[in-house]
Amino acid sequence: MTYLKLAAFVFIVCLLSCKTDKKEEPAIAEAPEFKIDYEKFTLDNGLEVILHEDHSDPLIAVATMMHVGSNREEPGKTGFAHFFEHMSFNDSENVPVGANRKLIPEWGGSRNGGTWSDGTVYYEVVPKDAFEKILWIDSDRFGYMLNTVTEAALEREKQVVKNEKRQRVDNAAYGYTDEIIRKNLYPEGHPYSWTVIGALPDLQAANIDDVKTFYKKYYGASNATLVIAGDIDIEETKKLVEKWFGEIPSGPEVEKLIAQPVYLGETKSLYFEDDFAKLPELRMVFPTVEEYHKDVYALNILGQLLSGSKKAPLYQVVVEEAQLAPAISTYQSSNEIAGEFIIRVRANENTDLDAVKKAIDEGLQRFETEGVNPSDLKRIKAELETGLYQGVSTVLNKAFQLAQDNEFRGDPSYITQTAKLTNAVTADDVMRVYKLYLKGRNYVMTSVVPKGQKQLAVENSQEATVWKEEVVQGVANEEVSQGEEAVYEKTPSKHDRSEPPFGELPLFKSPEIWESSLNNGLSIYGIENKEVPLVQFDIRIPGGELLDPKGKEGVSNLFADLLMEGTATKTPAELEEAIGLLGASITIYSSKEDLHIVGSCLSKNFNETMALVKEIILEPRWDENEFNRLKQALETSLKGREANPNAIGNLALHKLLYGEQHRFGTAGSGTLESIKNIGMDDLKAYYQYLSPKEAAFHIAGDISKAETEQALAGLQDWTGEPVELPKEPIAALGKKGTLYFIDVPDAKQSVIYVGTLALSSSDEQANNLQYANEILGGGSSGRLFQTLRIQKGYTYGAYSRLATSEEMAPFYVQTSVRANATLQSLKIIKDMLRDYGQSFTETEVDITKNKILKANTTAYESLGAKLNILTELSKYDKKTSYLVDEQDELIAMSLEDYKNIINKHINEREMIYVVVGDKATQFSEVKKLGKPVVELDIHGNRL
């Protein structure tokens, strides 16, 4: 559960481009109308219900969208929509305490919720047999939760929301920027003048009467949309919806909000010294228009034109010519009643933001002078077509889109209109909105700079103020618990509202996998799937970061980036355009043990996309200017990483477990020291490792084996010799049973990692250890989450997992807890790890089997998930039947098997502890755990 901007939540791409001069626009073939099939009806209580039938997988997605976000709050009671979302996941009259978070994962499903400025959404994806159970839980949360709210639950959830804010805002670089912008862009009292998470003093003051008032005002059936998508029968589903949701009160009529765009009488320039930031960041925010306004489509396009490609004027000036930053982004962000156009630059270290502002102004002037290249229109339209299909390629994404457009536009299929309106945008439209909303207009500008570097802020900026929480050690009122259950009389119902039984169990069917190979040694694996006209592919080439020369860690990552910067016959901009014209994406990245060339495209463009992949592999450009730019961008990224407590803790754990001589003991992208030693010759030397021998091509989507083989024929020209991968010794620096502490002054949370090296993913026991971890740390139903978040309110989340690699991989616990709960959390983790094997019973065996077996029916819906099946198969040399084989192995595991693997690999005495937090308050506390304590710097070196 989180607060969010729905535009990032609904995975729809609606970006087009157009020209800004009078040249003739390129002709584009008329595309077939894009639409999502659905049936809509309304219950007597006003609940609007939308059904989408899709029998491709035995799963069902349910999304309930409430038309209430932070814009319905009032000063003094901010953050309440998000807080109420949290409260809604606790108890309800007819569902057992904690069932929502615990039972749904055990049924093989996933669930969550989100709140943004305009609304709140609750959603689940479950195997088909749990469908009615989800309707039972959803309807009970919607209509029957209010009587169950207790003071204890209220106080516990306050702490959870506080922990979320600490994690996302207080302990994060640039976390306060949104608060600064909202307070200065919107007038006092405007519904967007406060953040979604709100002010913590408002939250702390909330009481049960506030909860009840909010529920009764906004959680009526007539203020919501319910979408059910997936393997359903329409007529049967209508009956079930009427049964479970039909008695929910309609609620009072909620007044519709009207657009409230803002006007700035002057430009406001503010600066803020950030405790965590290591790099200066500039944002310019212009007030624009609300979502669904006719100008939104042109503003979306304007954002792409200004910075979305290598030919874009702001990219050219800020990134390439002035070399002030590794990237720049410009985009329209619309909400229900107002919108913003944002220019954002996170600059290189020690960069004066006055120079960045000057470069932005120059780039905008260039845009006015040069206009838009007509070919951009064709390129972006091709990207749009692909994006539309990708945006609704799963039943959950379809549910989100249908719900969003129904609740906020009154038309579930508005995606069809969105495509048409965007497609109709002209060059004149783009220039019109540029002049109307940006040129010569006032804006809010923020200069967020590292603490002590005020001189980097834009000249004459005024200091911004934010509210900062003081986390005091040992505050008694922050000790929370489950508390007593509420005593109440159940709401009468004409239906039996007890838990319904499971439906017919859907059988897990492993997708059919085909195999082939090329004469050059490249293995090919594929899964054909015709649900949408898309394909995704992944070429896995063994080596990756393992092949980085000693002292030059980061070579493989720079090499991967440089390969995408043009070819022998194409400049970087020309390659980018060629890919875009196909509506395709191609990316290269290096991981610990492999280099990957990944991409996606419409199936009709696969041949042309693979021709570009071949050109990228066989005809590298070796562009010196791009190499220098990428190296600078990497340096900026590495400096920025120093501001991330989670990254600091993770890197320290790996260094302690593997040692400095092993490649895994150093950050994958290298260090600020190692990248200084890297030159172009190092990348050219690495090119010899780009061999098809031992490499594998994986593809999933709307393409057959024969079509794939034909398209890959050109890759026969790719040759090379087998590459011998180094076997590096593991020489751990960390000592088991020791706690390592890293100081991040004034941290409001402590990041905790507890881990040990366990198993290679090639080990036949690796999957069994994954199974054995489910009860401990497998999501919201795991003991770590249930104890540290649900019972204690110490954290926003707590998990454990086994990493994956051919090398021996670590098993670890990870969480971020309230600073003054660090010691208590460490004690809980320590005891839970120590007692896990002993406390594992036949009950846990049954829960684990049920959870994983049912989850398999929903785990492989997307093309990405199908692609992961193939990469797992090829890398670890598994049989094509491995999914079924491992499922059979799970069924056969006994309690003794679980206890054996837990006692061997989840052994608390073998663990290393890493804590990243505020030394002034927590260093003396962690010593009370009874373990030796060693202090490290942020790079994992002993002090």
From TrEMBL:
<keyword id="KW-0645">Protease</keyword>
<dbReference type="InterPro" id="IPR011249">
    <property type="entry name" value="Metalloenz_LuxS/M16"/>
</dbReference>
<protein>
    <submittedName>
        <fullName>Protease, insulinase family/protease, insulinase family</fullName>
    </submittedName>
</protein>
<dbReference type="GO" id="GO:0046872">
    <property type="term" value="F:metal ion binding"/>
</dbReference>
<keyword id="KW-0862">Zinc</keyword>
<feature type="domain" description="Peptidase M16 C-terminal">
    <location>
        <begin position="680"/>
        <end position="851"/>
    </location>
</feature>
<dbReference type="Pfam" id="PF05193">
    <property type="entry name" value="Peptidase_M16_C"/>
</dbReference>
<dbReference type="Pfam" id="PF00675">
    <property type="entry name" value="Peptidase_M16"/>
</dbReference>
<dbReference type="GO" id="GO:0008237">
    <property type="term" value="F:metallopeptidase activity"/>
</dbReference>
<feature type="domain" description="Peptidase M16 N-terminal">
    <location>
        <begin position="532"/>
        <end position="661"/>
    </location>
</feature>
<dbReference type="GO" id="GO:0006508">
    <property type="term" value="P:proteolysis"/>
</dbReference>
<feature type="domain" description="Peptidase M16 C-terminal">
    <location>
        <begin position="207"/>
        <end position="384"/>
    </location>
</feature>
<keyword id="KW-0378">Hydrolase</keyword>
<dbReference type="InterPro" id="IPR007863">
    <property type="entry name" value="Peptidase_M16_C"/>
</dbReference>
<dbReference type="InterPro" id="IPR011765">
    <property type="entry name" value="Pept_M16_N"/>
</dbReference>
<comment type="similarity">
    <text>Belongs to the peptidase M16 family.</text>
</comment>
<feature type="domain" description="Peptidase M16 N-terminal">
    <location>
        <begin position="49"/>
        <end position="171"/>
    </location>
</feature>
<dbReference type="InterPro" id="IPR050626">
    <property type="entry name" value="Peptidase_M16"/>
</dbReference>
<keyword id="KW-0482">Metalloprotease</keyword>
